Amino acid sequence: MNDITMRLNADELIKMALREDISSEDVSTNAVMPESKPGVVELIAKQDGIICGMEVYERVFKILDENTEVEKYVSDGDKVIKGQLMAKVKGDIRVLLSGERVALNYLQRMSGIATYTHEVAALLEGSKTVLLDTRKTTPNMRIFEKYAVKCGGGQNHRYNLSDGVLLKDNHIGAAGSVAKAVEMAKAYAPFVRKIEIETETLEQVKEAADAGADIIMLDNMDVATMQEAVKIINGRAKTECSGNVTKENIKNIIDSGVDYVSSGALTHSAPILDISMKNLHAI
Q1: Do 244 and 200 share a structural domain?
Q2: Each residue of 232-277: pLDDT tens digit?
Q3: pLDDT one-digit tens code per residue, 141-166
Q4: Does residue 190 share a domain with residue 55?
Q5: Which of 72, 136, 186, 238 is catalytic?
Q6: Are 98 and 203 in a shared domain?
Q7: In 3-state terms, what secondary structure has residue 119?
Q8: Angle 132-136-137 (CA atoms, 0-180°, nearest 5)?
Q9: Residue 88 annotated to the active site
Q10: DSSP string of 85-123?
Q11: Alpha carbon distance 6, 206 (integer Å)
Q12: Domain that holds residue 234
């Protein structure tokens, strides 16, 4: 995550997280550390995984005190092993204590998503199918979670509702039919926007392809049905598989021949990566 992205988008979200955790004061820290004192603490991996969020982790402490120094030994996308020293943070002990939880929340969550995505992406190696995330993200965490997907080896689907046209079942219901929904989207959306539509049956697949959809999502179809759908589309549109895709069942999808597979589990079901700050002492 570069400096421009951090300043324009991430800083305010990090400040909101800090305000949530420190509404008036950090009573525990102020009780044991009434005055400023320099100290250092170690950042240690407690399990194997893919690291993501080191710049966000550092930014938490820099927002609290720009004089805080973070000596990083790993970068986003690196593999770490249990017990590995990842960084040392030096600064006002009060800042190290008050920022600890928020910094770790970001780092653990983002690293967990990167690790899970890496495991899922590995199952698609050797195939033409590209792994995508979804908008099933934690409120106010999307910028961090989608970045974590990329660190883990996945790709981002549309970022938000302004980013692309995706006509789902309720959009089709509102329009009246698959063909009508595609027709209306073509008339309304800028020509630079691709139009994707969700289908649940082979009849809808044919209708979407005939209507000129750019991407056809095959929602909750079994492998045999998806294979038939790919034949019906016959290269007229890109294909995306979606619906309850997890690490446990994604390998079955490779045989379907779809171009993309999207998985909400990458962001909504990835467990955190266990990481701790230890051995805090004055210097």
Answers
A1: yes
A2: 999 999 999 998 888 888 888 888 899 999 999 999 999 999 999 9
A3: 999 999 999 999 999 999 999 999 99
A4: no
A5: 136
A6: no
A7: helix
A8: 100
A9: no
A10: EEEEEEEEHHHHHHHHHHHHHHHHHHHHHHHHHHHHHHH
A11: 44
A12: 122-268
